[in-house]
Amino acid sequence: MRILLWHVHGSWTTAFVQGGHDYLLPVTPGRDADGLGRARTWDWPANVDEVPLDRLADSEPDVVVLQRPRDLELARAHLRREPGRDVPALWVEHNTPRGDVGGSRHPMADRGDIPVAHVTHFNQLYWDTGRAPSTVVEHGIVDPGLRYTGDLERVAVAVNEPVRRGRITGTDLLPGFAAVAPLDVFGMQVAGLGAALGVGPDRLAEHDDPPQHQLHELMAHRRVYLHTARWTSLGLSLLEAMHLGMPVVVVGATEATEAVPEGAGTVSGRLDVLHRAIRELLHEPELARATGRRARQAALDRYGLGRFLDDWDRLLKEVS
Question: Domain 152-303 falls in which CATH fold?
Answer without folding.
Answer: Rossmann fold (3.40.50)
